[in-house]
Structure to design on (128 residues):
């Protein structure tokens, strides 16, 4: 009986896969980015300058610094924000989760919307 129990526990232990617990793959977002566009179901002034919002990812500290040089606050409030996540998702302490994708010099951050709320989809497009 002890042998069977040992075999079962051994199989359970060996079946654990470290790929299930991948950490965030954030090296591609490292550095400073400038907001170039916001895509959402919201209205903006025609002359709004998105480029006055900058973000800087410090991947060693798992922190993003947001700087707004205008009256509008896009993405996050001014300041430092710690993040976590897995794979291509960034989680913030307020519960907001963003999927990210880097293609060349463009970073796309898409808010993972709540299915209970209509029209809360928003995508932020940043460039280097």
């Amino acid at each position: 009986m002890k042998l069977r129990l040992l075999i079962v526990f051994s199989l359970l232990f060996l079946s654990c896969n470290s790929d299930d617990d991948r950490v965030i793959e954030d090296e591609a977002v490292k550095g400073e980015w400038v907001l170039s566009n916001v895509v959402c179901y919201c209205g903006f002034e025609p002359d709004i300058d998105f480029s006055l919002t900058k973000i800087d990812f410090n991947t060693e500290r798992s922190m993003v610094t947001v700087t707004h040089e205008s009256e509008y606050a896009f993405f996050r409030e001014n300041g430092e924000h710690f993040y976590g996540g897995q794979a291509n998702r960034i989680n913030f302490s307020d519960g907001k989760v963003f999927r990210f994708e880097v293609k060349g010099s463009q970073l796309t951050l898409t808010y993972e919307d709540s299915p209970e709320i209509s029209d809360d989809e928003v995508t932020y497009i940043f460039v280097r």
Q: What stands out?
A: Strands lie at 31-40, 53-58, 63-68, 79-84, 89-92, 97-103, 106-111, 122-127. The helical segments are 2-15. The two ends are 63 Å apart (CA to CA).
